[in-house]
UniProtKB/TrEMBL annotation:
PANTHER family: NOP SEVEN ASSOCIATED PROTEIN 1 (PTHR16038), WD REPEAT-CONTAINING PROTEIN 74 (PTHR16038:SF4)
Transmembrane segments: none
Organism the protein comes from: Carex littledalei
Lineage: Eukaryota, Viridiplantae, Streptophyta, Embryophyta, Tracheophyta
Bias (Acidic residues) ranges: 423-432
UniProt-listed SMART domains: WD40 (SM00320)
Region annotated Disordered, chain positions: 366-452
Residues of the signal peptide: none
Name this protein carries in UniProt: WD repeat-containing protein
Amino acid sequence: MPRLSTLESPGCPPLRALTTDSLGLIKVVEVRGKGGGTPQVVEMWGPPDASRSVLCTSFADRKKDPLLIPISSIFQWQIEFFNPLEGDVLATIKASESRNTDQSSSANDPLIGLHFFKSKHEDLSSMLGTLLTCTEKGKVCVRSIAKSDAPSNQIVDSPSEWSVTNGGQVLCSSLDPSENYALFGGKHVELNLWDLNTSIKTWTAKSPRPNNLGICIPTWFTASTFLCKDDHRKIVAGTSQHQVRLYDITSQRRAVISIDFRESPIKAVREDTDGHTVYVGTAIGDLASFDIRTGKMVGCYKGKCSGSIRSIAKHPQLPLIASCGLDSYLRIWDTNKRQLLSAVFLKQHLTSVVIDSHFTAQELEGTKLKGPASQSEASNQPDEDGSKDEDRSRKSKKKRKEVADKKKKKSKMQDEEQISGVDEPEEKDWIDELPVSKRRKHSKKRREKQLE
């Protein structure tokens, strides 16, 4: 049985998060109001279908024309481009269209990662942008994506393709914030760094040394990320052997720091904006933060998750992270106190979560103020003249007094009726209840009175 602990959730500040699940649904969870509160599901897009299970997503978090791109396992790995504000589908392509391969080979080589370039803006209004995709066999493709309503004679640049491995299974991929370098790793695939401008491999990791028994740890990377926002040379990766490793490509090929965390594989790794903290989620629901400078754990998060953590998202401004996984819960955490702020049950197994950093509570309040005032708000508004309030209070007091007097008078009348309605007992009745001696004495006195 999973370990569960009951905690008081103080609520979280205004927030907007989007989740994807195993039925292909996209759910929008929001916390409205300046004071914050409890997250609620406000939108749900897509038909529920197990064949449309979302494997991975990419989110273009920008104030103008944001995009959410999930990969579904239907029709040879379908890629859809969503407007995360309204839920409109802007374009739909298949994985076989994103690279020069036939559909049969693409079905046997599914996509495991993608990234939408935020910095590469297309000049034409009919173009969405540039997309990078990677498959399990290491086939990488970078191509431009046109909108669904783009003209047929629109000229699109030819995609660039290359392979990042000759064998093994690629399981994780990530891009640095500058979007100039890409990182790939997986089962029997060492971490390797590629320059996207020249499509040349610039660095490859090296396996750890054998232990004291001469046993080599097999290569099996499950998650990876770049540690610093402005530096692509420091890399953090999680392995299936419950290890968190730090690599510095300017120092050496082997890991600089290796940390063992619990006894289950690492499934999610996310860096913090401070440049030295990483958040780690495991296959049994453990969530913790590490200071990668010293290799020590800062602490575990209070509140046990009951399923594998598959995705962690960090808010760029607020000290918050969101996590989701196979227990169907979206959880919001405070990174300062490592406390659970709120949890939302979303029914399906969740695969990823992203946070909209441009969501503000002021916009929601502005829309609310434009609408008609509610009845309670109208009743709570003060009158123009203070005398009206005094008259209303005086009338209410007088009315309450009249009602109380009526009740008192009614109860008094009922008591009188009850008293008058009771008949006095006859003399014979109470004489019969007396003893025999007293009864004779009383009858003698009664006869004397009659004679007089």
